[in-house]
Design goal:
about 15% strand; 2 domains; about 180 residues; 4-stranded antiparallel sheet
Length: about 180
Amino acid sequence: MDLDHTDLAVVRELQTDGRLTYETLAQRVGLSRPATRARVQRLILDELERDGRLPFAELELAERVGLSPGAARARTLRLLDGGVAKVLALVRPELLGLGFLCGFAVRLDGERDPVARHLAAWDRVSFLSACVGRAELVGTISAESLAAVRETLEDMRACTGVRAVESWIHLELIKERCDLTPNPS
């Protein structure tokens, strides 16, 4: 039996320490570069963003990120359990009869948090963000009709602490991005 340089290096490492993990052994003999936790987490997140239906407990994700299936599954579960990532579905409102999207900006007289909590509890408010600038809150209303949009805006204007509400209707969704990977300039 002929052994090449890599085979001999593997045998020597295992003779030194027979308890090595495959990843450590591969790194020591030059078959893979050391993977930082952050780099591997980013690779896993990138792959799941690309294909959210990718089964993380199987071979495909593991091969894409350079881990064993068990390690890929364990690291993915850590990301999910730690709240770093969550599995969700993006809904197309028009297919649910909620085809009217209205953006809004709220300027306040008083404290932001009570108004934000109140608006966040509304079913038709599908997005809400605190911000700095002309408005203290911006968001999106998803509604079944223009009348429902108008009713929601009127209710919003009547809220205690709301000074003014500016609104606009979204004509067409051009781009929606949910990943956190920065775009290269």
